[in-house]
Design brief:
Pfam family, one: PRMT5_C
CATH superfamily of the largest domain: Hnrnp arginine n-methyltransferase1
GO cellular component, one term: cytosol
Keywords: S-adenosyl-L-methionine
Distance between the termini: 45 Å
Shape: elongated
Strand content: 25-35%
Largest sheet: 9 strands, mixed
CATH architecture of the largest domain: Distorted Sandwich
Protein name: PRMT5 arginine-N-methyltransferase domain-containing protein
Helix content: 10-25%
Number of domains: 2
Number of helices: 12
GO molecular function, one term: protein-arginine N-methyltransferase activity
CATH topology of the largest domain: Hnrnp arginine n-methyltransferase1
Number of strands: 27
Structural class: alpha/beta
CATH class of the largest domain: Mainly Beta
């Protein structure tokens, strides 16, 4: 829960129950019998007289134009400083804060409302609290790290305190709903891992995804029934616990429905659904579709959900190739992969291979580019490459490439992990895939490759001549 604290400008404030914590000013700290964990300094001049009274100091950066000089001076002192930094829309100033954030904890001091881009930019920094002097933009506090709110006024204005507690309640609710995950997650390996049932349960909560799939399946069946004027053969590949299968099963009077699922944990649930809901009219196989495809014959419609966070990173092209027949329609029809250069404070020096990351600390610093595209059926080109020079925004740096996807399911219906247009259903069950790079400025000369062999596939990315994940040594996706 977001806490509300106060700068104690008077000794009486320390004993108030309205605050979860307090930070005494230098004058108040001198009146206390116990040593405060932090002391608020009005100026650096007070440091020399109070250096023995506190373990750490909270000090304000008064003029952002001299941020570098001020932070250099603090770094030379033998004390722990938490720096209150004004929030200003200045690229050069933000760059200084980014450079020093490994040396200091920050407390943001908003003054004016920020544009949406600048809110994202500041949220990519690491800060522990927000100093409230008056109204502020709650979005700055909606972070996975859940920064505290600190009230600061000479007499602790009651209206300001009341607003702060109201902010805290609202922010806590927003953080709970946002479901940020500020740690690195291994991408799923569905060909070699048996996903536990609770993972499927999480996926099934993604209502926009299943709404889009339902519309796409209905539209495809409508078109095919008109065109082919007969009962259709429909296959669902990897149905999991059955949501896509249930959508297709609504048309059982007009289709012959088959499902192939390789996870034995799901098979018993599918068989029970088949018995209780579909009158045992669905044919269910357990196994690898790449092995079973030849014995199953041709299908009019193949439905799958083998889409990874980067689109093709769960081997969808390789898996579905076995079903590529001239008269087969597939859902999805195309999958596109996108890359956006970004800065993410969590990435700096920490990782060297791809991970999934649902963080609010990533800020895009250049335009998004499509890197790969796969069409279904009849897409035999598993290896693809992309080359492009990204010009970074002024005074920005990049330390990661953020990967997302868009999939055209059928007709005009598309889903994606990020919004590229108003017709795309944005889905929550895919987190962005990040590809770390060495920190670069000015431009990124990128060569991005997808390499697929008989037993594994991997990505290599070369930035300004420096190659990452060469030969898939750091990370690859098993195909067998």
């Amino acid at each position: 829960m977001t806490r509300v604290g106060a700068v104690a400008t008077k000794k009486e404030i320390i004993y108030e129950s309205r605050f979860a914590f307090y930070i005494p000013t230098a004058a108040v700290a001198s009146q206390l019998n116990t040593k405060a964990s932090h002391v608020f300094l009005e100026s650096l001049n007070q440091y020399h007289t109070l250096s023995g009274t506190s373990r750490a100091f909270l000090i304000r950066l008064v003029d952002f134009k001299y941020a570098s000089t001020f932070l250099d001076q603090l770094a030379s002192l033998e004390a722990l400083f938490v720096v209150v930094v004004p929030v200003v829309e200045s690229h050069s100033y933000w760059g200084v804060l980014r450079q020093y954030q490994s040396q200091f904890a920050y407390v943001l001091q908003p003054k004016l409302r920020l544009s949406a881009d600048w809110v994202k930019r500041y949220k990519s920094l690491t800060y522990i609290a927000i100093l409230i002097l008056n109204d502020f933009d709650e979005d700055l506090a909606v972070k996975a790290t859940q920064p505290d709110l600190i009230v600061y006024s000479e007499d602790i204005d009651n209206n300001l305190v009341s607003r702060a507690h109201s902010y805290a309640k609202s922010i806590t609710e927003k953080i709970a709903n946002a479901k940020f995950i500020n740690h690195f997650i291994d991408p799923l390996q569905p060909l070699t891992q048996q996903m536990p049932l609770e993972v499927y349960e999480t996926f099934e909560k993604d209502q926009p995804k299943y709404k889009a799939y339902e519309e796409a399946i209905d539209l495809a069946l409508h078109d095919l029934l008109i065109q082919r004027k007969r009962k259709l053969r429909v296959l669902v590949v990897g149905p999991g616990r059955g949501p896509l299968l249930a959508t297709a099963a609504k048309r059982l009077q007009q289709i012959e429905l088959t499902a192939v699922e390789k996870n034995p944990l799901c098979i018993s649930q599918l068989q029970e659904l088949n018995r209780t809901s579909w009158d045992s009219k669905v044919t269910i196989y357990e196994g690898d579709i790449r092995i079973l495809a030849a014995s199953l014959g041709d299908f009019d419609l193949v439905i799958s959900e083998l889409i990874g966070s980067f689109g093709c990173n769960e081997a969808c092209p390789e898996i579905l190739q076995a079903l590529a027949k001239p008269n087969t329609v597939m859902i999805p029809q195309t999958i596109q992969s996108f890359i956006t250069p970004a800065f993410c404070s969590l990435v700096e020096g920490n990782i060297t291979r791809p991970y999934l990351l649902n963080s609010d600390e990533c800020f895009p610093v250049a335009e998004t580019q499509q890197v790969f595209e796969f069409s279904f059926p009849n897409n035999a080109k598993f290896d693809q490459s992309f080359q492009h020079t990204f010009a970074l925004n002024s005074l920005d740096v990049s330390n990661t490439l953020v990967g997302n996807f868009k999939a055209n399911l059928y007709g005009h219906i598309s889903i994606g992990s990020t919004s590229s247009d108003s017709t795309t259903f944005v889905c929550s069950s895919w987190y962005p895939m990040i590809f770390p790079i060495q920190t670069v400025e000015t431009k990124i000369e990128l060569l991005f490759r997808r390499i697929s062999l008989h037993d594994r596939l991997w990505y290599e990315w070369t930035v300004n001549g420096s190659k990452m994940n060469a030969q898939g040594v750091e990370y690859s996706i098993p195909l067998s």
